[in-house]
Amino acid sequence: MINAALARCKTETHQGILTVPQPLIPRIVGRQGSGLDKLRSLGISAEVEGRQGANSVIFMGTPENLEKAREMVMELARGQSNRS
Hints:
Blueprint: H1 2-11, E1 14-19, H2 25-29, H3 34-40, E2 45-49, E3 56-61, H4 63-77
Antiparallel strand pairs: 1-3, 2-3
């Protein structure tokens, strides 16, 4: 457990908080967390802050990966999500 935490410290060097309209949160989370999994596949940690009425997503990763995650969320906000 400690080794895993130390490994995350090397890749999770920055934090970003993205505030989005609350109705967008379910699209970001996805069915059974699939949207968060897709964000995590970019090499970041992603968590929705709070539970009911949440409107913030917290990202941790490298600056480059945080930017990729932000772009993915912005695509969702525009209704143009990429489905790979």
